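User: Design a sequence. Structure:
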């Protein structure tokens, strides 16, 4: 393959650099159930077996693709989607929520809230067990509540909890020092996992407990395999306390950082669910497929906000005038209307516009470069010879390029207009970024955080001075301290009157919009993407942060494949590799076959000598498979040329169109992955389906 006389090696390397890592994730956001939180005395019951559990729903594998490697699997001490998504499958919670913000029975079959709001009594289902067979009791609930209170990043979430009484093995009474308007919501799957006391209460430091990576859960699925950065494999827990569930036998979570790779796998039905897609071109592309559903539902209780965080421990960002100058230099309409194609909503404050506690009566920062320059002059940072005033480092999350990297590049260009040199620092993974953020190792960082359904859960944690906790990401990592803000948030966290809460939160929003420890940019336009063959997709207010025990296959994906060509026994070694790969893909699909294809001992890969490997691509030239790692799914090879200036893709397609495939010899086409030099290449191509081709590639020595 020739690339207009430019080294193919350089072009391939350029493509490779465009691939982004980790989504992560991660997250934090908001929406709320209309008016007052329901803390009036209430008895709720609901048998888990009320609806029929038809055998036709049983079985099957669900493959979810998501960008974000979890730090571990213990949602009691960490937040964010990469932990919450598998955590909601591994652990059950007292309650779960539907799409109408109504709490539903889960581990608690019924509950009552006292008239004064100071006690919540949970009546647990009987016969529930952890994945090791131990019974789930009220002691485990009490242990879990107090553990979350002490170690979770959202310190305000269970702050009013004094203790949990356990009058019998199936009754837990949560005692509060004051009414808690969000106590019921705080018992959702992603926020209050019920952990086994006999495992996590053994004296080990909970933050480094070995069970965080090898959990003993209480939920519908159990962890059977985890390959960091690649896959999480969950299997059905047969003794789950809801009879007949979960319906699925297996859930596989693919940790894929590249949105284009996610999309091509979703198109080919190798992946069945993409939660939280933000790539606008991908949303349009997948919406056009008749077997794929794309919706914005399933994030009503999440409310994710993109933000620019300042480290107030560092000069010059400890000066409010500098932070305000940066705000005046930013054109948020340009970000939402141009970079985001008009699909994201501006966020002028810390509470998302969809919340009943949102207030727009805050200081507004519209683009004004003159005002920004005046503020920097007043702060003692005049222009120096060469046109700069100061240098600031900017980090960003290695996820959602349109919401993070693109904005970082825009900020670098924009802040240069007022004399601020921005040095962008990248992170190879979410854990790397989280470590920097949590340990205050940053000047500015783009971030995103959820409101988590109620400000007392997801907002206060970011501004309360008693939640400045080094090493904890998505706490008050800005080191913002304001006694008035502390007082307002603490009052709002105890106030049961919705009108009074609105007033308290309105005053809070006014103050932080003036102090500006954070610049709020936009609400993330999350979309849920799922195969239409799935029944009961996760579209409740918590979406993918909910248990998937009700999800089942109504109709399995139909993937059209070409019949396997007959073997004559006279196949060449390269042809044999291609046909073996074809047979493996027929039997197991891309995901199932990839481990075998990537094992050098299986005969499909030799990166030490001949560069032998296998690629797969669509007839439009989009890569969906490369067991060598030289390219990534989603890469476009349509414009790659050979030495004579001819496009290579038509030649590969023509070779595949012969019955059983055929051999193609190319000069200067593709660098040998063993040597990274261009040399003669033999390619055997064969049709996988009417739309897809598989090729085995081998170089001469």
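Assistant: Done.
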């Amino acid at each position: 393959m020739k690339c207009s006389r430019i080294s193919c090696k350089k072009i391939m390397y350029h493509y490779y650099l465009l691939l982004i890592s980790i989504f992560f994730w991660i997250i934090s956001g908001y929406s709320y159930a209309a008016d007052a939180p329901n803390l009036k005395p209430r008895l709720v019951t609901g048998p888990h077996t009320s609806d029929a559990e038809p055998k036709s729903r049983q079985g099957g594998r669900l493959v979810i693709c998501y960008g974000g490697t979890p730090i571990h699997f213990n949602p009691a001490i960490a937040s964010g989607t990469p932990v919450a998504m598998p955590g909601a499958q591994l652990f059950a919670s007292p309650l779960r929520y539907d799409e109408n913000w109504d709490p539903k029975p889960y581990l608690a079959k019924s509950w009552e809230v006292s008239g004064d709001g100071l006690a919540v009594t949970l009546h647990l289902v009987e016969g529930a067990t952890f994945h090791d067979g131990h019974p789930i009791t009220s002691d485990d609930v009490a242990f879990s509540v107090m553990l979350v209170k002490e170690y979770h990043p959202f310190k305000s979430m269970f702050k009013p909890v004094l203790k949990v009484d356990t009058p019998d093995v199936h009754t837990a009474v949560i005692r509060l020092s004051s009414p808690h308007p969000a106590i019921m919501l705080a018992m959702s799957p992603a926020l209050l996992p019920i952990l086994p006391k006999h495992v996590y209460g053994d004296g080990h430091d909970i933050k480094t407990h070995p069970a965080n990576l090898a959990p003993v859960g209480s939920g519908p699925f159990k962890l059977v395999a985890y390959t960091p950065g690649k896959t999480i494999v969950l299997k059905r827990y047969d003794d789950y306390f809801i009879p007949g569930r979960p319906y699925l036998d297996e859930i596989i979570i693919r940790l894929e950082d590249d949105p284009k790779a996610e999309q091509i796998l979703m198109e080919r039905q190798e992946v069945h669910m993409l939660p939280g897609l933000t790539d606008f071109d991908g949303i349009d592309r997948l919406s056009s497929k008749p077997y794929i559903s794309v919706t914005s539902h399933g994030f009503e209780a999440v409310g994710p906000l993109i933000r620019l965080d300042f480290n107030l421990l560092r000069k010059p960002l400890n000066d409010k005038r500098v932070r305000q100058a940066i705000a005046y230099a930013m054109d948020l309409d340009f970000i939402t209307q141009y970079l985001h194609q008009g699909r994201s909503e501006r966020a002028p404050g810390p509470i998302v516009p969809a919340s009943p506690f949102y207030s727009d009566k805050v200081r507004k920062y519209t683009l004004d470069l003159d005002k920004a320059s005046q503020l920097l002059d007043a702060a003692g940072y005049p222009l120096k010879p060469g046109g700069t005033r100061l240098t600031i480092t900017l980090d960003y999350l290695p996820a959602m390029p349109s919401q993070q990297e693109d904005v970082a590049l825009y900020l670098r260009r924009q802040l240069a207009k007022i004399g601020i040199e921005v040095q962008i620092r990248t992170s190879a993974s979410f854990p790397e970024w989280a470590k920097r953020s949590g340990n205050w190792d940053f000047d500015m960082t783009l971030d995103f955080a959820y409101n988590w359904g109620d400000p007392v859960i997801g907002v206060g944690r970011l501004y309360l001075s008693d939640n400045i906790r080094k090493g904890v990401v998505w706490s008050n990592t800005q080191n913002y301290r304001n006694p008035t803000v502390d007082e307002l948030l603490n009052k709002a966290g105890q106030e049961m009157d919705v009108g009074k809460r609105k007033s308290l939160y309105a005053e809070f929003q006014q103050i932080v919009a003036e102090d500006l420890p954070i610049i709020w940019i936009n609400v993330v336009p999350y979309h849920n993407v799922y195969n239409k063959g799935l029944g009961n997709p996760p579209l409740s207010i918590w979406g993918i942060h909910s248990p998937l025990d009700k999800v089942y296959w109504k109709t399995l994906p139909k993937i059209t494949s070409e019949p396997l060509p007959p073997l004559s026994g006279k196949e060449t070694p390269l042809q044999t590799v291609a046909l073996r790969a074809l047979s493996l893909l027929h039997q197991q699909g891309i995901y199932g076959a990839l481990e075998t294809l990537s094992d050098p001992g299986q005969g499909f890969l030799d990166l030490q000598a001949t560069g032998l490997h296998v690629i797969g691509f669509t007839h439009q030239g989009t890569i969906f498979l490369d067991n060598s790692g030289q390219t990534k799914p989603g890469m476009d090879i349509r414009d790659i040329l050979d030495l004579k200036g001819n496009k290579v893709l038509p030649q590969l397609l023509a070779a595949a169109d012969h019955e059983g495939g055929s051999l193609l010899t190319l000069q200067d086409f593709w660098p040998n992955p063993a040597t990274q030099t261009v040399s003669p290449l033999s390619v055997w191509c064969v049709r996988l389906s009417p739309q897809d081709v598989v090729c085995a590639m081998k170089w001469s020595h």
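Confidence is low (pLDDT under 50) at residues 1-52. Residues 44-298+527-553 form a domain with the D-Maltodextrin-Binding Protein; domain 2 fold (CATH 3.40.190.10).
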